[in-house]
Amino acid sequence: xxxxxxxxSTPRRRALREAAPFAGPARGxxxxxxxxxxxxxxxxxxxxxxxxxxxxxxxxxxxxTLGFTVRSEDGTxxxxxxxxxxxxxxxxxxxxxxxxxxxxxxxxEIVRKVGxxxxxxxxxxxxxxxxxxxxxxTNGTIEDLTDYWQRMVRIxxxxxxxxxxxxxxxxxxxxxxxxxxxxxxxxxxxxxxxSDVVRDDATRYAQQDLDLALERLKTARExxxxxxxxxxxxxxxxDIQTQMGLLSTLQTQQANALIEFEQLRETASSTDPRLDQxxxxxxxxxxxxxxERQKFGKGGGGEDGVEYARTISDFERLTVEREYAxxxxxxxxxxxxxxxxxxxxxxxxxxxxITPTLAEKSEYPQRGLILGLLVLFSLLIxxxxxxxxxxxxxxx
Length: 396
Known about the structure:
With 396 residues, the chain is an alpha+beta fold. It has a domain at 215-344. 66% of the residues lie in helices and 8% in strands. The chain is built from twelve helices and four strands, in the order ααβαααααββααααβα. The protein has helices spanning 4-18, 30-56, 78-83, 95-105, 108-117, 120-124, 142-152, 173-231, 236-267, 273-294, 308-343, 367-395; strands at residues 62-72, 153-157, 163-170, 348-354. The chain has a four-stranded antiparallel β-sheet with strand order 2-3-1-4.
């Protein structure tokens, strides 16, 4: 029997042999080689170079930690209790003071002041030959030194609590602590200088207010003395009381004379001389009463034409001015005493809750963190570059 399967498959096998050959092994194209080369250049080489530098050339850095806060003087003097006016003269440990201190620590001024006591260039160029990237250049200017200072002195400030913490880096632990101590000393001097300016201004202004109040008091007293000399009256109120007593006495005499006159008119004849005498006595008393009453109104009697109502008004006005001047003088004197009391003590000062520490081991540079960030950003940059390349290629 003939095998039909073999016969039928022969033409099929022949057709398969005559068909196109299978695809050969994949070959890399030019863009693949460019991507691989870019990966090496943008990722591997920076990581390897950075790792080599960090672990073989980079010098160890030591950190000294310093923490402080701005405090205000809470003491109360006797003048504060009397006047209550010097509470605002000494200032307080507000957020603005801490912000000023924050900017001062980062400024060129503190670099100059610390550099005057410490050789910062020698401290920061200790490993300049072996570690040129993380060390300071000896040929730099004060601006360059300030930039490097801001890298080596790290400040952390909390607006809520008002706490300021510094991390001072140096290539030697003793240098780091010395720099931290110098920063604390210069910051204390600066905050004290600000407080001195406030206290000096407050004292000067209080002295000016006192001088003005004293002149006002002198003027008021001189005006009152001139009034007394012009009117020959020490106390118009006492003089009025005297006049009122005299008027009351005359009115009593008038009443008695009137009663006597009425009795004589009823019992005596019209030609009785006693009746004329009583009438004249009553008229004299009425004239005296009228004269006394005129002294309390306009067109007053007497040679000087004293008007008691106006006199009393002028006296009361001058008295009020004198009392006001005395009150102002007492308040100004209390304010000056308070300002002087505040000036005699330190209103603002730095309170260190962490004194400058001395490191026992190197914590900087943070090599693992730096390499990790370098790997992350290198891969991100390389990936973004690849995406941009393919996006531009697909648009062609």
